[in-house]
Write a structure and sequence with these properties.
204 residues, alpha/beta, six-stranded parallel β-sheet
């Protein structure tokens, strides 16, 4: 099996690599950004992708969508700190086959990896329960596109609109217009209200 680990923290990649090495006959490729991940997928025959959502440059949801649109074999497992149901639903809707947080036990992570690598699906037990009882289903944040959620994540990280535009490679006006749409969707009258909402999505 050839696995691609996409995370901007070297310590996380190292820990995952050791875990995979101890459990599988596997070749591990590492990427610290969305751009590096796309290059790795283009250059290698990947069987499994373990992907963080909080990435510099091309964000995790944007990257996930691009990888799925490429087609082919790789099975995608999201491994992230963010357990917000809105992100879980969006990742699964985009084509992720599994979703686990970095707070999961080693046993549960290995279970998820085995299931997804074999072509199945897996959602961490606590997340699955949260999804079942999510009171926001059908409105507010759940109406945002993956690009809008990526901008909201960057707002939560303290980025200005100009910095966000530069990070995701669009015009400042595009980001400003997107924020206006998000405010309307989320019933947030002011930008500061949107930022407060975004802060609730900051990974713990």
């Amino acid at each position: 099996m050839r696995a691609l680990l996409v995370d901007d923290h070297a310590l996380v990649r190292d820990a995952l690599k050791r875990l995979l090495d101890s459990s599988y006959p596997v070749e591990v490729i590492e990427a610290a950004s969305g751009e590096a991940a796309l290059e790795a997928v283009a250059a290698n025959d990947i069987d499994l992708i373990v992907l963080d959502l909080n990435l510099p440059g091309v964000g995790g949801l944007e990257l996930l969508g691009r990888l799925v649109r490429r087609g082919g074999k790789p099975h995608l497992l999201v491994l992230t700190m963010n357990a917000e149901p809105v992100y879980v639903r969006k990742a699964l809707a985009l084509g992720a086959k599994g979703y686990v947080t970095k707070n999961a036990s080693t046993e549960e992570l290995l279970k998820a990896i085995r299931r997804v690598a074999a072509g199945g699906e897996y959602v961490e037990a606590e997340i699955a329960q949260a999804l079942a009882f999510d009171p926001t289903t059908g409105g507010g944040l759940n109406t945002l596109s993956h690009r809008e959620l990526e901008i909201l994540r960057l707002l939560a990280a303290g980025r200005s609109l100009g910095e966000i535009a530069e990070t995701i490679g669009v015009a400042y006006k595009t980001v400003a217009n997107t924020c206006s749409r998000m405010k309307a969707k989320c019933n947030a009258p002011r930008t500061i209200d949107l930022i407060r909402m975004a802060d609730q999505l900051r990974p713990g």
